[in-house]
Amino acid sequence: MTESVNAAERINAEVSGILAGEYPDDRRVTITLAYCNLALDHHSSIILLYKNQRYSSGLALVRSIFEAMLRAHWVVGIATAEQVDLVAKDPEFDIMSRVDADQIDAAFQADGFFRQAKTDAWKAMNAYAHSGLRQLARQFTAGRIEASYPEAELLEGLRAATAAALVLAHLLAHSTGRDTQPIEALIETVP
Q: Which among 189, 188, 169 is positioned nearest to 179, based on CA atoms?
């Protein structure tokens, strides 16, 4: 577990370094940059929470990163200029009702990647984010109030968060003409 957490921390630091610098003043880019920064911040928080054995809170943040990844892909590949303006200006604009994994797959020729990721992980992420049964059942160890998360479950949450942050970072790099190779190499190292 420690090795995986340290690897995720290294990946986060490397991605932050790769993406540092100036960006064009373009609303799609600015929104994507904000989503990426938010995802990396949540990812750092998951790492910190895991290091302090606060697994429930760490797992609750995984969905936030996944949503940022989906939202950013929708903004870059599907949203009209009017919708992008609404994302930036209207706090009541319901972006998630418009985000469709199949549309994102089509827009980015992702061969079902986003649909598969959402299908495989969405229910679990919701259960962790909304204090569902997955969270409740893990609060007890032999009749005591003590977290009892299987290591495989914790590692899967960390992997999912790291992968989603990297996919989002790749989108930002690609959509702004930056070299995507370093991020692609990091994707291959997700613990």
A: 169
Is the pTM higher than 0.85? The answer reads yes
Radius of gyration of the chain (CA): 17
Strand positions, DSSP E, 12-74: none
pLDDT in tens, 137-188: 777 777 777 778 889 989 999 999 999 999 999 999 999 999 999 999 999 9
User: How far apart (Å, rounded) are the C-alpha atoms in residues 71 and 69?
Assistant: 6
Rounded to the nearest integer, the mean pLDDT of the chain is 91
In 3D space, the residue among 27, 43, 121 whose CA is nearest the CA of residue 80 turns out to be 27
Q: What is the mean pLDDT of residues 46-64?
A: 94
Short-list 43, 72, 56, 49, CA closest to 162: 43
Q: Mention every residue, 6+ apart, whose C-beta is less than 8 A from residue 146.
A: 139, 140
SS3 assignment, position 141: strand
The number of beta carbons lying within 10 Å of the beta carbon of residue 117 is 21
Per DSSP, the three-state class of 37 is helix
CA distances from 147 to 15, 126, 140, 179 (A): 31, 19, 6, 42
What pLDDT, on a 0 to 100 scale, did the predictor assign at position 150? Answer: 87
